[in-house]
Amino acid sequence: MQSRSIQPLPENPEPQRLADEILQALRYRLGKDTTVATPHDWLTASIKVVRDRIIDHWMKGTKETYEQQEKRVYYLSLEFLIGRLMRDAFCNLGLMEAMREALASLDVDIDLIARLEPDAALGNGGLGRLAACFMESMATLDIPAHGYGIRYVNGMFRQEIQDGWQVELPETWLDHGNPWEFERRERSFEVGFCGFVESPSDGEGDAPGRHIWKPTERVLAVAYDTPVVGWRANRVNTLRLWSGMPVDPILLDKFNAGDHIGALAESNKADALSRVLYPADSHQAGQELRLRQEYFFSSASLQDILQRHVSQYGEIASLPDKAAIHLNDTHPAVAVPELMRLLMDEHDMPFALAWDMTRRTFAYTNHTLLPEALESWPVPLFERLLPRHMQIVYAINAAVLLEARQGGHFNDQQIANISLIQENGERRLRMGNLAFVGSHSVNGVSMLHTELMKETVFADLHRLYPDRINNKTNGITPRRWLLQCNPGLTTLAREAIGDAFLDDIAAIRALDPLADDATFREKFAAVKRQNKERLARLVAERLGIRIDPAALFDVQIKRIHEYKRQLLNILEAVALYDQIRSHPERDWVPRVKFLGGKAAPSYHNAKLIIKLANDVARVVNRDPAVRGLLKIVFVPNYNVSAAEILIPAADLSEQISTAGMEASGTGNMKFALNGALTIGTLDGANVEIREHVGPENIFIFGLTADEVAERRKGDAQSRATIEGSRELSQAIAAVSSGVFSPDDPSRYRELMNGLYQHDWFMVAADFEAYAAAQRDVDAKWRDSAAWYASAVRNVARVGWFSSDRTIREYAKDIWNVPV
Ligand code: 26W
């Protein structure tokens, strides 16, 4: 990390002083004294105390940015999976130990109250967590940045497992209020929907130019700000989340006329905008409410950004020099025509100038190549909700297609691929194409993913704009994913190599030679063991399953999706189970397999896979013939807080997606940084992780992305593949015939038949290679010196996968802001 942004830690306050402040907060903010304070009150009081300290840094940074006219970064994302914030703040402010002591002196256990903080689950998975890591890194690197999103009252659903099935319950993270946020009633903007467009009176006809949109529906977006603290409180940035409010809270006329429901209709509509996060991470929702949410937060954010700009600079033309607006996937892509509208209709700019400014301002990150995840909206729906934006989209499309035609290098099919409108079948607006043409930079999130983007979804747009696509391999914040979640390993590393890695995670490389030091390896193994014991205790307490911390802990935690191949993992476990029973004489490595993740409520196969994991777990875990050599644990309600406990305790990280389908993965990075070895395919960032850790410190198996593409082109060979593998056919037969579902023997028949019929996700095709790689894992585990040497090397060599590095690249190559 460059020294520019490093400042000394704020003076470490006396625990006694902090204790006094906590008591004051308890008394004057909560109106309680120690005799009646609940654990929740202690939590709130503690948060208020740190928040007060944050505010001074916050105001200082905001003032400097203003005075020095620094360029600001605006990160627009429909998801921010921030998790719990209290430890984050303690850690980054250097207050952890002082707060622990202060609370202890008041007879309060910091760990106990920390567990009461709700896990803010305003995201589905990787994309949302990446946004949270980026926010922290931008603050750490002293980049003036604002995150913009929606303050969902019910974020990601809470998952319960009942009789092995996933049940979705509402997440009520705001039940006790949110001590972090500041409501900014004065910062509210009107957002319109529907209505009609008045053409200009000066006879320009339909040509783009100044038009007046008369929406017939309006809502208010009200800002709620949460401070985001960087490492060592270098800088505090703002996460601004919008909440929907009615313009008129109650229509009194209607109420008085007896229409009590109608009187509240507007209020309910506004409320709906910020109520739920759509619980789908790889399937475009296609619902009107989703498009309304996208426009709601994009419009409010842009109005806010423009207002800030104009009030500071008194003009709008310098916007691209002072603001970099980032589109996190296509979810905010409607911001492109919205900025055009604001520039043309409210700031009187001609189309060409507005278009140039828009492209210089926006940048777009793509996070998925799955066709079913690429957003597109039926033209009639888009036109009804946003009639003015539809006109602008047509004008943009005309300009882009003209450019393509003039080049003369494109045939009709290629022109059709470039078009913002998909013409075959129902006419749909392609949000990926819109985001692409409206941005000066389009990036993928790993090297492989970026190359595939150029070859597949954006092949023709890439030919038209060959300099636009670039790669920014994802990263994770080492503060949360090492310092906070793994204090044992952090302390060990500090003792061994000093503190440099706290400020610059690349310096953790200094651990590398210690892989050959037996004493160090033992200490490292002892830390891992402690983390495993903590997890084992939790599993016993909460799930009633006894597991042996000496066993190999094998973990697959992520959204449940067929391409992520939890099914491959489970089938291999079934095969292993069979082997353990058939060959009791062999020297089996004791293993505990952890699986965790949520399935989209409408994703039938994903939910069935959860049930299968639980069915297999039930049978295996209580079979005395297994002698505890294999245990399977499905961890319910996987979220950021669960990850913080599971990852430090993992020996083996499962990153086994079908090659070419996982854009990057970020869990893979978190596990490696915490000393787990990866078993994985050459997919997403695994490819780069292998380059960094070295092929001898990772278990790579299976088809490559090219081989997958080849195989999909040819005849399905899956039946032959399955029949060629005794282990696989037996495992499939067992599952299919109801060995694990005696209450409903045909439960998995169709799921298993799918493997015979097309095997789109290459579960059968990769099975043998995966099983062989697992036996390599066993062999290495038996040589514990070799295992821990590799584990240490993983920790030492993955510093590059820090979101600080990623953000520096964005800052330099895309946003043009200094770091
Ligand atoms: C419209 C529905 C929808 C919602 C979210 C479609 C697609 C998404 C996201 C693109 C899903 C997502 O989280 N993608 C993940 O992004 C991570 C951060 O870049 C990557 O590491 C993961 O590989 C990718 O699956």
Automatic annotation (TrEMBL):
Entries under PROSITE patterns matching the protein: PHOSPHORYLASE
One Pfam family here: Phosphorylase
Gene Ontology MF terms in the entry: glycogen phosphorylase activity; pyridoxal phosphate binding
BP GO terms, sorted: glycogen catabolic process
Subcellular location field: Cytoplasm
N6-(pyridoxal phosphate)lysine modified-residue sites: K670
Recorded catalytic activity of this chain's protein: [(1->4)-alpha-D-glucosyl](n) + phosphate = [(1->4)-alpha-D-glucosyl](n-1) + alpha-D-glucose 1-phosphate
Lineage: superkingdom: Bacteria
EC number(s) reported in the record: 2.4.1.1
Keyword entries, A-Z: Allosteric enzyme, Carbohydrate metabolism, Cytoplasm, Glycosyltransferase, Pyridoxal phosphate, Transferase
Function statement: Phosphorylase is an important allosteric enzyme in carbohydrate metabolism. Enzymes from different sources differ in their regulatory mechanisms and in their natural substrates. However, all known phosphorylases share catalytic and structural properties.
Protein known as: Alpha-1,4 glucan phosphorylase
UniProt source species: Manganibacter manganicus
